[in-house]
Amino acid sequence: MIRILVSVAQIDLAEEMARIEGQDVGAVASFCGLVRADDGVDCLELEHYPGATEAALERIAQEAAERWSLQAATIVHRVGPMRPGERIVLVLAAAPHRRDALDACAYLIDRLKTDAPFWKRETRGQDARWVEARDSDTAAAERWTS
Amino acid sequence: MTLTILYFAWVRERIGQAEETVTLPEHVVTVGDLVAWLATRGGGYAEAMAEPERLRAAVDQTFVGLDAAIGNAREVAIFPPVTGG
Q1: Which residue range(s) make up the domain with A135?
Q2: pLDDT tens, A18-27?
Q3: I want to staple A29 with a disulfide (CB 3.0 to 4.6 A). Which of A2, A98, A101, B1 is the partner?
């Protein structure tokens, strides 16, 4: 079962794991991204494209389900303002065995980075700036197309 | 033809609004044409549209290149490369 959630609420790891474990799966791989306090960042704000964001995440999860024998996939992404140390994104991939779970989990987060319409804005004191996209993220997503 | 245009991130900030409805002139066929046309409005529009290679777009919520036709779309979004995750 695919679960997509884009919300301003804090991400509850235990609740999301429990939802997956309740589906009689064999292995769960997880990735959780946190707000880094890079060079004194004191606030990170996430903007997104409502509707298109959820559709993009759903599509990425469907593609993973076609590629690996997934039993469940969860993508939870936070939006709005958040502080260093808080969770931005959680990806869970469940499969009968570890290899599919691990590979699908990496695929989900790599594709999310380049294919889902989110934008990060960092604030350091009075200075706010939009985060630039990184070529390394594009390269990480492209390795799955070869 | 009327079209809703959505702006995100620094594109939205430079233009000063998140959304507007416009009547397209006939010569605007592709998303790139739309970007060029918006740039002619000057001010924040010119600033936001100054470097089309830094812009990405979606037509009716499907991600496309700037050479994509707008066709009978109801909604076009213009934004910087995405930075989620």
Answers
A1: 2-141
A2: 999 999 999 9
A3: A101
